[in-house]
Structures
1.
Amino acid sequence: MSGIVGYLGTKDAVSVLFEGLKTLEYHGYDSVGVAFLNDAALRVYKKADKIAVLEDELNSIEYHSQIGIGHIRLATHGSPVDVNAHPHSDCTGKFAVVHNGIIENSHELRSQLERKGHHFVSDTDSEVLAHLVEDAYEGDLLAALRKALEPVRGSYALVLISEYQPDCLVAARKNNPIIVGLGEGEYFLASDLPALLPFTRDVYFIDEGEFVEITPNNVQVIDSDGNPVAKEVFHVDWDVSVAERGGYPHFMLKEIHEQPQILRNTLGSRIKPSGDDIILNDIKLTPDEIRSFSKIVITACGTSYHAGLVGKHLLEKWARIPVEVELASEFRYRDPLLDPSTLVIVISQSGETSDTLAALKEAREKGCRILAITNVVDSTITRESDEVIYTWAGQEISIASTKAYTAQLLVMYLLALLFAKERGTMTQDEIAVITSALQQVPGWIEEILEQEESLREIAGHYHNCNDFFYLGRGLDYAVAMEGALKLKETSYVHAEAYAAGELKHGPLALITEGVPVVALATQEDLLEKLVSNVRGVKTRGGAVVGVSLGQSDLVDETCDHVFRLPKAPSFVGPLLSVVALQLFAYYMSCARGCDVDMPRNLTKSVTVE
Ligand code: AGP
């Protein structure tokens, strides 16, 4: 997530803006910008560089201002270059806006505006907001913003400033936070609490659909219908480190809780409103090229490799194309059998993992088309690939990957549906059934998050155990691999994922009194087989935690503890069950007193072999 600040008061606005932006640097960013009114003239300075570099640049010029907006951007749409940095202006340069979020219908809005004569300078989605306000402005900035946002689909936290009303800031929020800071004769706006704490601890939290108008000595909040909203002052007593985690005790828990919003962002602009078609503007693969591939190889490491295992199931089942999933550290030395009719998909949250990069180069040397799925714009892997799909999960700070994994999964679902459509292996009605379920996933995850206390209790029951088995069949086996890794890397507990059907071929010898087993039971067609394996564990004294989709008598009758996911179709099982496993690992780690966000021996991006 990028960072927003705004200021109106008696201090030097630019200094306040930079001080606020510096507190948000931990989000990660690749460009910075400020806009302020200097003698009522709107001035905008921005750079694809660090805050300190832009600050130095401004120290060398004359200006005086007491109102301004600022932004640090982690690129999603559009590379990190100066022109794509925020603030964005309109054609006249009389308006400037900073924006967090994703404008889902930015292509359509931009075309409409260009037909009306507007000219754009960036390739971001956010710039359309400045031109929409320019189009709507009739003397009232707040009214113009409300009108400008009517056709906008997507998510935003935004702050707008204009030369026409040099003592006014307006802001709006939809699915992205914006907070008002209340000072003595001065007001602040920010996307995140840490940016306000150097100046004030009294704030208004702005709610969904609300607008804010700040003028000297007054803050007005209205709802989406234009009715005034009375806000209560909230006094913040968190310290900065807690504020950086949004009030959560660890980044891992914060990032687990961000997943509904991340998936809404990822889904929103990539499923046609009709629901029967997928829009992946990110890639240039033509339908003929998609039909021409004879097989797909997915190569990655760790959690990203586990996302590839789910991708294999989906691509083979829906698009009927053979898929191999390879550990990059093995693939790179195996002289693999590849040819130009193979599509190689490399998955990497960081885009910098050395094994995955080496596997990519191996595939390139054999003439394969390379498609990268990554979370970091302009990372090395993106520069070495022919096609890139971004996961838009925002910076993932905790070493244990959570939100990036579910965003990777979602991209795999969308890619499998796109391939199924172009290869004619699914009808539009069949695709619509799946996209309809996918659009409910964020809400289902919110329901899981509401039950996290029961996962904390289950973790409390097993936190002294040092060996776990994770069992599953089909898609559940792929997720069991990820669940076991989460537990290993955050709790230092030995955990092994096994295909449930394999247990009797050896590992069952390890099941004795009290050995804990997590059994994923979301695949309806394999449920009876899975439960039969669970009975085999119970017979030998094992303790079983079942994870089911809704209520299942079979699972209830055989497991010692059961975590019920919302009743959803089996094919979205991975997107839901993994959240329960993330929370279980998190609470096991807390119960065992581990360093949740920075586990021993591990690093966020393994850039060495
Ligand atoms: C996941 O929780 C781990 N941090 C690790 O397995 C990670 O997924 C792996 O190192 C791959 O990283 P990448 O996705 O950035 O390539």
2.
Amino acid sequence: MWIGFRPCRPWHRDKGSKQEPAAPAASAPAAPAPAANIYVVGTDAAYAPFESQNGKGEIVGFDIEVVQAVAQKAGMEVKFLNTPWEGIFNSLGQGDRDLLVSAITITDERKQTMDFSAPYFDAQQLIAVKKDSKIAKFDDLKRLKVGVQNGTTGDEVITRLQGKDSANIKRFESTPLALKELEGGGVDAVVADNGVVVHYVNNNANAQFRTISDTSFAAEQYGIAVKKGNAELLEKINKGLAAMKTDGTYDQIYAKYFGAAPAAPAAAASK
Ligand code: ARG
């Protein structure tokens, strides 16, 4: 190794030195090959139980375990990077992230700019209100202050109800921020994905929330997103997903987070 020849050489570089310590001579033995191909996974880790940061700052959750299992089946190495929802789709388009897992609902609009794996989870919007609230159904939110995470499907449904210029829609950077606002009384309701709302209500008894579902909410499905046209990666992911569903890994992860095997393997059955 280069530094072996000059054990006394100071670490900082001498001015005018011809040797570039950072660039070993061409004859130096090749450095160990960098771990094949590490796929960078973007996730907005403020969305328990799907993705969140634990006390040690590690990114954990249902989505994380699903992608880890997919990667294992597909022989891929993955690394998760916390990526704010606001810029998450751009990070994919720009190539800063190879794939996204973030409880992302597959929508026709999003399909224009990215490609999705087969669906891996069924979801629906759910309303959170204070226990003593008089709100009974979605339509009651027409003229009330409603908190959502900016740019989510929750944002879409309330925007449709109130109109896009409504001053009563309070758009937050994250869903927990919207729920905190409800706790503090700054909004009358929050509309977000059922899994996240239920998890929050169950884990924050002192918030005194209850939930309201509404038949007008469409069925949603989560998918793993890749850059539009990245068919090679998409195929790996879909094969990995299929394999971890077939061998029971998916059900195990599902049971760990949601207490039972999924009622119907809708995700597996869909196109
Ligand atoms: N499913 C909703 C959507 O796709 C919300 C997802 C938000 N995910 C997150 N990790 N913050 O719009």
